[in-house]
Amino acid sequence: MYGKDVLKEYIFDCQIRKLSKRTIKTYKINISLFLDFLKIARSTVNKWISDYNNIKSFKANDNRSDEENELIKLRKENQRLKMENDILKQILSAPCVNY
């Protein structure tokens, strides 16, 4: 279901609730103005709706592929290993002090 379809469904729901044509028109205008205010493209809204319809979640983790999750995991591990490596380099390069 995409933006146009959602809007049609919403308008249909308004008609079933027997809202006046003027009220429905105002709702349409307000929704468009709100999206324009947020500077959200209709394609973005359509993607959100599509993601939600496929996964039933707006959480980024739920909408990532297994490959994307694996890549994120590997990048975090790589960053951790680099930090450990830097620490070891600093320890080994420090002058030895005998007490």
TrEMBL record:
Gene3D superfamilies: 1.10.150.130. It comes from the Bacteria. Residues 64-91 form a coiled coil. GO terms for molecular function: DNA binding. InterPro entries: Homeodomain-like_sf (IPR009057), Integrase_recombinase_N (IPR010998). Keywords: Coiled coil, DNA-binding. This is Phage integrase, N-terminal SAM-like domain.
